[in-house]
UniProtKB/TrEMBL annotation:
InterPro entries in the cross-refs: Beta-lactam-related (IPR001466), Beta-lactam/transpept-like (IPR012338), Diverse_Enzym_Activities (IPR050789)
Gene Ontology MF terms: hydrolase activity
Pfam families reported for this sequence: Beta-lactamase (PF00144)
Keyword ATP-binding: no
Name assigned to this protein: Serine hydrolase domain-containing protein
Length: 411
């Protein structure tokens, strides 16, 4: 187990300790107003943990507090892990960013694109461009999520059983085949839309590598990095450390237990979701972000080359535009103004347009239960935030946390 603790005087790495304590005060205010069950925040610079802030409960009903070894459902923070896995295969020469995915997933050989109609009667046309690997990594493939509820194709996903999950008993191969039967929202590469693309990417990793996604993750990423408590299921002996999942009560906004989705991480899933299936401790995910910050290497273990990480953390939207310009106005785990998108991460292009204190070049992502991380190569800073409140749009936690971290960076 990775022991997560403060290991440097904040002043030694340019932080004002008193200002950092504003993080604690701010999120303690959420607890005082009974808006969050509990939280844990980690701020590092130069590879050293400068601040840990935590309070509240990992399980309100059982009166179990948040601790540094609490296990969290990271949901869409699984996506960067899957993206790293795919880029490891690119580095191995097994696949190229421009390759059509139908080379390995024949169900995507002849995609159709929605033109007009409703979810029950659609008019489609053939795709003029194959779905390529980089389309999956950048969410420009034309795929979607059923929970968006903004387009007839979203509705078709829900009708097929894909809303906040997958139909019971469906494995990842079956998931890919079922999604391939749905039309695309747009021609591949022509727009950005947050989607199940990373789940399809996970299936691609399986086929290209010849391993199940969980085996690849464990053998190639988690074990080398010492992430012993990250996976698609918490160890049965550690279930008491898995935080409960909550939603805001519709009347009071108080955390209301949501055990239906709370089963994620408690039992082995039939579908290994590369887009949202992992659970992890803060210490484990901290190791993952440190590897990214250091250009693919940590403690002598190299997963990726530095040029690969640099490419992943670059804006791949055509013309270098931001998500506001190129994206559809559906839910995402990142803001749109001033943010582009790389190979698995949002990328901050323009802090002024984004109205944030963060640095250009920051790359980041978050999860549906209001978890988040970012990596700031310019300042050598990483930040993690964990709680278990669905959905992540409930409160502006990520915006607030950015301001709270950077107002404390004084050197």
């Amino acid at each position: 187990m990775i022991e997560l603790k403060v290991d440097v005087d904040p002043a030694e790495v340019g932080f004002d300790a008193e200002r950092l304590r504003r993080i604690d005060k701010h999120f303690d205010g959420y607890l005082e107003r009974n808006l969050l069950p509990g939280y844990l925040a980690v701020v590092t610079r130069n590879g050293k943990v400068a601040h840990l802030a935590s309070n509240g409960m990992r399980d309100i009903e059982a009166a179990l507090p948040v601790e540094t070894d609490t296990i969290w459902r990271v949901f869409s923070m699984t996506k960067p892990v899957t993206s790293v896995a795919a880029m490891m295969l690119v580095e191995a020469g097994l696949i190229d960013l421009k390759d059509p995915i139908s080379r390995w997933l024949p169900e995507f050989a002849e995609p159709k694109v929605f033109t007009v109609g409703s979810s029950v009667k659609m008019v489609t046309e053939p795709a003029t461009e194959p779905i390529r690997l980089w389309h999956l990594l950048t969410h420009t493939a034309g795929l979607t999520y059923g929970f968006h509820r903004t387009h007839p194709v979203d509705s078709a996903y829900r009708d097929a059983g894909f809303d906040w999950g997958t139909p019971p008993g469906l494995d990842l191969a079956g998931f890919s085949e079922a999604i391939a039967r749905q039309p695309l929202l747009f021609q591949p590469g022509s727009e950005w839309n947050y989607s199940v693309a990373t789940d399809i990417l996970g299936r691609l990793v399986e086929v290209v590598s010849g391993q199940s996604l969980d085996a690849f993750f464990t053998e190639r990423i988690f074990t080398p990095l010492g992430m012993t408590e990250t996976g698609f299921q918490a160890d049965p002996g550690a279930l008491d450390r898995l935080a409960a999942l909550y939603v805001p009560h519709p009347a009071t906004k108080a955390p209301f237990r949501h055990d239906e989705m709370g089963n994620v991480g408690r039992v082995a899933p039939s579908c290994l979701s590369g887009g949202g299936g992992l659970v992890a401790t803060a210490g484990d995910y901290h190791r993952f972000t440190q590897m990214l910050l250091r250009g693919g290497e940590l403690d002598g273990v190299r997963l990726l080359g530095p040029r690969t990480v640099q490419l992943m953390a670059s804006n791949h939207l055509p013309g270098g535009v931001d998500l506001e310009t190129y994206g559809r106005g559906a839910f995402s785990e990142a803001p749109y103004d001033g943010f582009g998108f790389g190979l698995g991460f949002s990328v901050l292009e323009d802090p002024v347009k984004a109205k944030t204190l963060s640095s250009a070049g920051e790359f980041a992502w978050g999860g549906a239960a209001s978890t988040a991380f970012w990596v700031d190569p310019d300042e050598d800073v990483t930040v993690l935030f964990f709680t278990q409140l669905l959905p992540s749009t409930t409160y502006p936690i990520r915006v607030e946390l950015r301001n709270l971290v950077y107002q404390a960076l004084v050197g």
